[in-house]
Write a structure and sequence with these properties.
This protein is an alpha/beta fold.
């Protein structure tokens, strides 16, 4: 868990060698970003960030430190910030220093640039336990307060210090609203089913699969509509189908409750061509052959038929993001190449494998 303590101070800009970066007369396109990732999974949070940045152009992972990651990218924040599900904070990266040198780095901060701007400094701890967040924040606050006026009311600029193996300093761009996903959990929607995927994971799976918010996306096992909800909330043109009339009706109710609109049809996965569309991506959480109905069709046969239909209804190099209980049940190699796979243990008898494929 990230814990933090806050002190609000006044003026701004960090690091005199970065003055030119913050000069308004010089536009900056290529940026370094500091992401404070959620710790709920070792792979999915950093993969999500990487794919979101790649949607807008070039991206390179510079460093990962516990649950923090630093990327070089030419994406602008408004192109991806509102899509993130598995991070806590996004900052414009400034510097990394050894923890023992952090006090000296704070002492060297140049606050003479914008004396009227209020700032705050926040410290988030990663895996280190050899310091006290509150005491350290007070120490750094005292250093900065000796240089300028204190303003505790309205910080104009927020700086974050993430402490892992090193201390990473950034200028906060956004706090990710993770609470919105909790509010959209299936238990809080009108049509409830125990098999529905968590909204954060649904959003992350879409982000791992869709190349842009302009992607045309299909969920052919839409169930309660969790994946469709997240796709529609990002502004994608979303299509959903299910063999069960009950699930289609339930999806309509849940989507309507959130005032979202998608294309819904009751149909078998093998009939998805009836939509008359070629999809940029297919993102789905199909039946596992346990509590969800497969109409008595063996799960391997259902998945095999689905993959054939996927390959016939995707655009060139289209992608599939799918959640399955066993990767071995997915015979994908003839038509698809594997991009990513990882697993989440739900409970003793169920592991969910998150798999991203690309059409050959």
């Amino acid at each position: 868990m990230i814990s933090e303590s806050t002190i609000e101070l006044s003026p701004t800009l960090f690091k005199k060698e970065l003055n030119t970066i913050y000069a308004k007369s010089i536009p900056v396109r290529y940026m370094k970003y500091l992401f404070e990732l959620s710790g709920e999974h070792p792979d999915l949070p950093i993969w999500e960030v990487e794919e979101l940045l790649r949607c807008s152009g070039n991206v390179e992972l510079i460093e990962r430190d516990s649950t923090a990651a630093i990327f070089d990218a030419d994406a602008l924040p408004d192109q991806f910030t509102n899509r993130i599900a598995l991070s806590h904070y996004l900052s414009e990266y400034i510097a990394s220093v050894e923890f023992d040198h952090l006090t000296s780095a704070i002492e060297s901060i140049n606050l003479s640039e914008i004396e009227s701007a209020a700032i705050s400094i926040r410290i988030a701890e990663g895996k280190r336990e050899d310091f006290n967040v509150t005491e350290l924040t007070k120490e750094f606050g005292a250093i900065l307060a000796s240089k300028t006026k204190i303003d505790l009311i309205k910080p104009h600029t927020r700086f974050r210090i993430y402490i892992g193996d090193q201390a990473h300093i950034g200028k906060e761009i956004a706090k990710i609203d993770r609470g919105q996903y909790e509010k959209r959990k299936n238990r809080y929607l009108p049509f409830v089913s125990p098999i529905s995927i968590h909204p954060r994971l649904a959003r992350a799976l879409i982000n791992l699969t869709a190349r842009s918010v302009n992607s045309k996306i299909l969920d052919p096992f839409c169930g309660t509509g969790a994946i469709l909800i997240e796709a529609a909330m990002m502004g994608m043109e979303a299509f959903g189908s299910d063999i069960s009339d009950k699930m289609i009706e339930g999806s309509e109710v849940n989507l309507g409750n959130l005032k979202l609109s998608v294309h819904l049809e009751q149909m078998d996965v093998g009939k998805m061509g009836d939509f008359g569309e070629k999809f940029d991506c297919i993102v789905t959480d199909p039946p596992y052959g346990r509590s969800a109905s497969t109409r008595r069709e063996p799960i391997e046969q259902l998945y095999s038929r689905a993959l054939v239909a996927f390959s016939e209804n995707l655009v060139v190099n289209g992608r599939v993001g799918i959640v399955i209980p066993e990767i071995d049940t997915l015979d994908y190699e003839q038509d698809f190449k594997l991009l990513r796979k990882t697993s989440i243990r739900v409970h003793r008898s169920l592991t969910r494998n998150f798999v991203v494929l690309e059409l050959r």
